[in-house]
Amino acid sequence: MKPILSFTSREEQIKLRIPAGMPLGKIRTVLGDIHPSSLGLTLPHEHVMCDFIGAKSVDRSRYDRREVVRTMLPYLLETRQLGVTGFVDCTPAFIGRDPIALAELSRLRASTF
Ligand SMILES: [Zn+2]
To answer: pTM for the whole thing?
Structure first.
């Protein structure tokens, strides 16, 4: 897997010695792909929800997705007010990653401002 580079300007690209014309790549989000320059200030390693019961027992029936969204949205809105525009949830599937909850939180977070 290629590393994701995030830079916002040709000046930064020159500073990093990235040849002109080299594709800048994309960032895959729960709401679709975006250009790296639109990511902005980012929290790079977060977990909206984790279930440490054990990989064999992790199951979406163990929690209420609506409750996760209701509980976590105020925290995500607060980060937005502080200028954070990017949020990377690093939760692996074996401890409960829920892309549907993450997408709902992303939509609500974006539509609140
Ligand atoms: Zn972590």
So the answer is: 0.77
